[in-house]
Amino acid sequence: MRHLHTLIIGALLATGLFAAPAQAAPVLCEKYGSASIQNNRYIVQNNVWGASTAQCIDVNQSGGFTVTQSAHNNGTGGAPAGYPSIYAGCHYAACTTGSNLPMQASASGFGGLRSSVSMTYPGSGTYNASYDLWFDPTPRTDGQNTGAEVMIWLNRQGSIQPIGSQVGTANLAGSTWQVWYGNIGWNVISYVRSSTTTSLDFSINTFYSDVVSRGYGERSWYLTSVQAGFEPWIGGAGLAVNSFSFGSGGSGTDTSPPSTPGTPTASGTTSTGTTLRWGASSDTGGSGLAGYDVLRATGDAFTRVGTSTTTSFTDTGLSPATTYRYRVQARDGANNLSPQSAVVTVTTLSGGGPGGGCAATATTQTTWNNGYVIQPVTVTNRGTSTLSGWTVTFPLPSGHTITGMWNASYTVSGGTVTARSNGSLGPNASTSFGYQATRPNGNTQVPSGYTCG
Q1: Which of 248, 274, 295 is the last residue of a domain?
Q2: Strands, DSSP E only, in 249-370?
Q3: Which CATH number do you get for residue 322?
Q4: Is 222 within the bounds of a domain?
Q5: What is the pLDDT of residue 452?
Q6: Domain of 28: which CATH number?
Q7: Across-strand partners of 114?
Q8: Structural domain boundaries, residue 325
Q9: pLDDT-based confidence at residue 351 (cuts at 50, 70, 90)
Q10: How far apart are the C-alpha atoms of 10 and 264, rounded to whole Å?
């Protein structure tokens, strides 16, 4: 299976047979040969983990390599022969200098991390040209990462495909990508570009924000390495990384803001919450959309009340019978901000009497690989008069399905779940309901943003 090379390299390190990268090694023909360049700023690795056929790479001390010999003939239904590549960060205890990796994806500096690459492709062979971004739940510098492997395919030649199956599409870094997901002991999320390119300059956060929004990664995880290279199945001579960079700001500077988001619309408004949706922005500056800021005002001044990596947001904890105004602003991977959208005005429902409204709080009882139970969802009448009935709404993450709900009836529309009870609820009284749901394997999300009315 692809990426078993990581296990092999770990064993070689443990036995002392894998030496630290040498400073000067212009041609590498050893299966796991590697060389540090630019005073160990980057490491180039031959990395023939999936075949016994010959492969040699000519290391470019300026920041790349060329595959000069490649006799591979692997079947396209199986694993590639290897992953000749250049990287920054830590890969099985071989760490570069000055990368600041591992870095937690919630760190303030994470949004400024960029990488760029320029490649050359031969006219024959079966291969992909791809980035490999590794994430681990811990700041790991050695061993196998167990969080997420994010692959960014700039090109593919021949009848090959990523691990798993296609789960959607995404518009990132100025292009459209197929999104694939599989799990081989860790989450593998692959982005396959709709049109071939020989170069890419992007913000790491552009792709990882999409990974997190799909539930395949966590902000608490650490980026451990950024790698760029090729996975050859057949042939591969002539593949080349002409240049590679990684760091804060990368090799290019994106100063172009995204376009203005569409005017928000509101739905599912209750006494304490509302759900906003808007038209997507586009980004042509190269760093790609990173998300949206949601701005709210009750007077003249707008303040940010939340962020979203999709084109919707549920605002909770609002006051009953109160008018709010909302705008949305897009943000790209270089933290450029778009113009603010037009305003939508929302007035919450009156709720259950003076000081009224109702509140809903949810507890996750248990989770497993592809499902969970939420119980109890506690509904409390905060007013001074009886509620003749109540509704609780919450967004259901993409790919999730409710398989049962008790002590309430429910409907699902456009990804929003509405739970209802026709029974009355006295002042300051509480009741509860629960439900069970399924989710895609490897997805870590559970619903949030419950509103009651």
Answers
A1: 248
A2: 265-267, 274-277, 289-297, 303-308, 312-315, 323-332, 344-347, 358-368
A3: 2.60.40.10
A4: yes
A5: 83
A6: 2.60.120.180
A7: 203, 247
A8: 265-347
A9: low
A10: 51
Catalytic residue positions, numbered: 149, 231
> In this structure, what token pair is assigned to residue 103?
């870095």
328 token code pair: 């949305």
pLDDT at 444 over 90: no
Distance CA 178, CA 70 (A): 29
The pTM assigned to this predicted structure is: 0.61
Per 3-state DSSP, what percentage of the chain is helix, strand, and coil (rounded to 5)?
5, 45, 45
What single string gives the DSSP state of each residue in 218-263?
-TTSEEEEEEEEEEEEE--TT-EEEEEEEEES-SS---PPPPPPPP
Is the Cβ–Cβ distance between 323 and 345 less than 8 Å? Answer: yes
The DSSP symbol for 69 reads E
Closest CA to 167 of 219, 214, 129, 209: 214
Whether the ω angle into residue 102 lies within 30 degrees of 0, i.e. cis, is yes
Cα 310 to Cα 291: distance, rounded to the nearest angstrom: 7
Of the pLDDT bands very low, low, confident and very high (cuts 50, 70, 90), residue 287 is low
Q: Name residue 395's beta-bridge partners.
A: 416
- Give the closest residue to 325 by CA, choosing from 351, 310, 347, 293: 347
CB distance 261 to 279 below 8 Å: yes
Residue 237 to residue 69: CA distance in whole angstroms: 5
20 and 99, same domain (yes or no): yes
Query: How many whole angstroms from its chain centre is CA 101?
Result: 18
Can you tell me which residue has the tokens 């199956």?
165
CA atoms within a 13 Å half-sphere pointing along the CA-CB vector of 151: 29
Going from the C-alpha of 273 to that of each of 175, 376, 393, the distances in angstroms are: 35, 20, 9
Q: Per the structure, how many domains does the chain have?
A: 3
Phi, psi (5° rounding) for residue 159?
-85, 70
pLDDT at 316 over 90: no
20 and 100 in a single domain? The answer is yes
Cα(356)–Cα(306) distance, integer angstroms: 24
Does residue 324 belong to any structural domain of this protein?
Answer: yes
Question: Phi/psi of residue 111, each to 5°?
Answer: -65, -20
**Run of H or E including 135:** strand 126-136
